[in-house]
Amino acid sequence: MDEAFGALADPTRRRVVELLGARPYRAGDLAREVGTSAPVMSRHLRVLLRAGLVTDERPPDDARARIFSLRADQLAAVSAWLDQVQAHWTEQLGSFRRHVERRSRW
Predict the structure, then answer these.
(1) How does pLDDT run along the chain (106 residues), one tens digit per residue?
(2) Given CB 3.0 to 4.6 Å as the disulfide criterion, which of 25, 54, 68, 76 pairs with 48?
(3) Is 7 in a helix, a strand, or coil?
(4) How large is the C-alpha radius of gyration of the chain?
(5) Number of compact structural domains in the chain
(6) CA distance linking residue 68 with residue 92, whole number of Å
(7) Which domain holds residue 84?
(8) How far is Cα of residue 9 from the mean position of the Cα atoms in its chain?
(9) How far apart are CA 25 and CA 31, in angstroms?
């Protein structure tokens, strides 16, 4: 989870995740879409791969090309954790509200 949040801390990588949420991309297409150079995009993709947020495959017709896709299962894990945190804070805020309402009646 730490690596996923670390990867998502960068706005360029968040943009890459958004783009990959729509469809798979080649690295060069991602670089053009985001407005970075190929080497910079390569570094961002390496971080996302290491965090397990994206996967890559090589098409059979071009061994040099790599097509990147989003790993929905990993994002679902991040989302589930955020849902737990939100539920906890919703519960805490509800308890605080009930406490304040009880005290205001005194």
Answers:
(1) 788 888 999 999 999 999 999 999 999 999 999 999 999 999 999 999 999 999 999 888 887 889 999 998 887 777 777 777 777 677 777 777 877 878 887 7
(2) 54
(3) helix
(4) 20
(5) 1
(6) 40
(7) 2-104
(8) 9
(9) 10
